Amino acid sequence: MRSALIALAFIGLSFGACSNAAKDKAPKKKEYKYYCTMHPEIGADKPGVCSKCGMQLVEREADK
């Protein structure tokens, strides 16, 4: 009985460790200073145009 509880605890801890490792390896999204309003994933650190639609990139509002 005791060995079964230990095995269950080990399995539970193993799954918890695996789920956290996957989150740590996820790529970080870069916050660009300028972005496309139609395609927010497209951006640049200087003014320009969107590579998908050609719209002007707009400046992101500063956090207060």
From TrEMBL:
In what residue span(s) does the Heavy metal binding domain sit?
33-59
Q: Which UniProt keywords apply?
A: Signal
Q: Where is the signal peptide?
A: 1-19
Source domain of life: Bacteria
- Protein's recorded name: Heavy metal binding domain-containing protein
